[in-house]
Design brief:
Strand content: 15-25%
CATH superfamily of the largest domain: Glycoside hydrolase, family 3, N-terminal domain
Structural class: alpha/beta
Number of domains: 3
Shape: globular
Number of helices: 20
Length: about 700
Amino acid sequence: MIEKEAKERAREKAGQIVSQMTLREMMSQLLHNSPAIKRLGIPEYNWWNEGLHGAARSGTATVFPQAIALAATFSTTLLHEVGEIVSDEQRAKHEAFSSKGDRGIYKGLTIWSPNVNIFRDPRWGRGQETYGEDPYLTSSLAVSFIKGIQGDDGSHLKCAATVKHFAAHSGPEAERHHFNSVVSGKDLEETYLPAFKAAVQKAGVDGVMGAYSMLNGEPSCATGLIDSLLRKKWGFDGIFVSDCWAIRDFHEQHHYTSKPEESAALAVKRGCDLNCGCTYSYLEKAYSKGLISREEIKRAAVRLFTTRVLLGEFGDNIYSVPYSAVASPEHCRASLEASRRSVVLLSNDGFLPLSPDSISSIAVIGPNADSRAVLWGNYHGTSASYTTVLEGVKNVLGESVRVYFSEGSGLVKDHVERLGENDDRLSEAASAAELADVVLLCLGLDETVEGEMHDDGNGGIAGDRNDVRLPRPQRKLLERVAESGKPIVLVLFSGGGIDPEIEHMENVRAVIQGWYPGEAGGQAIAEIIFGLVNPSGKLPITFYRSADTLPDYADYSLKGRTYRYMTERPLYPFAHGLSYTSYSYRSICYDEKANEARLIVANTGSMDGEEVSFVWCSIDSDDAPPNPRLCGFARTAIASGEEREVRIRLDDDVFTLVDKSGSRYRKSGVWKLSCGGSQCDVYSLSLSGSNALYLEVEI
């Protein structure tokens, strides 16, 4: 985190720079594509840059698994490493490109990541960008990622991170430009705000981005929470930026204002320093009408230049990264390791891991079997190399096993060839399945099917989903391949949960959630299938059985949503994930002084592994969620036959509740801590085959 004295020095220098500007020059610097001011030696700067899971949209970069997949690792250490690599590559690009006069979009040092919105509904296309449905998990991973992005110098920023989208956005995508999120005080404090607070107070995040939508009747980029909560209560002193063209929505969509100059003035007055878009070009008109003062414009400009000073844009740069760091072998190995840890084994009747010696042939089938697009997820860079599942299987098996391949179906279209008839690849897939000893069926989605709504501010084409089923052509493919009677390993690719509807298919022997697994994702999945890597990922979201069990998508209440408030039995619960080995939880104690749970965990199986251990807390109170909530987790490598002490630092708010008005308070009484490798309810434990430990703590 930037030290207070260093921030003051940067702010003073920024003030000196801004004080030399004319009012018109100040206004020009409040747009994301800030022009050069040559007479002051100020170069042009484009603030818009993405780095969700790798330096994005500026050419070659290391592409890590999508954010939701990184969340499945439950590893703060890994998220910090990913953040460091993203910022290293972005700074290397910035220095190389700017030395050649290229200061365009996606080439700056301000990274508009991470997305800390809560993945409250599986239909939300952008849920893949988040760290899942739990506020504590999201907070923990975001803090680590931000620290990795920004560096640990204390007086300079390697890159500047920006958390988004303040404060409660999570769909619907198609309505985001005019949608009003109605959120109770309790849900805001308990669920939607904690990650933003942690980013500010624990990570010292430099930027916060507002959402397109309104929040309780106010545009999110001009909500009173920017000043009252973010700045005054939490102490945020960085920059607030609008989502792209969101300020235009004030008058065109929300009808909160009537003219662009009114929107521009309102946003700056309410604390939005930077306009991604062009509405701030009306600030001059707003000033002439008396809608905004010079001091309010200067305040925003000083904040922006404080960040640029901290980044070393004005002769005080301590960070210098050679261009050779971009997609380096070391970074590519880190991406592969992240992929290995992110994959979740959802079900397995003992069929996996497969031994190459036990089969003579395998059919790799499905629209995602040899797809590069499925490796990416949205907001990605261009990897120097990719490994699809088909390629990964061939890498692992070599020439010893015959590999058959069929695309089987389109991702969402009824045919593969442009002039082909419907189901034009089904017979090929069936033939391949019949010839093989085992089928690896790769189904699901990609960024063209679920993602961000397409509009002026992004390149997305997808949006939300209507349900949690596979697309119709893939459902037909699954049925046809299952008719072969051959054992099937089903690999699902998606950002949100999918119900593949396989209860009647006895020959589906294992199900794997592959997410959008990054540039080497196919290699990681193949290594897991053939036992070279022990799966260790856990679900950061709930997999629901049907969208019919979910509340109205537009309802932001948590009732009936996420593991904390749901009442229906899920398909696969939050924190679920199987291993090829087994773990036993043998003791638990709580150290009040350290706010730490101490566990003894043993690997009782025959394979080395990494276990994610969870601590959940609950108390009998009307203000408590109906189900125990996550309050601590740790990922630990445990060798076969080894017993380890695992120390888990608990959430600072572990023994607090939030009342209906949104006030958080420390709750006295008997709290129950439960611990295990999954949630500790009967259903979760039955799926994992593990045990749980329980402890009562008097507060």
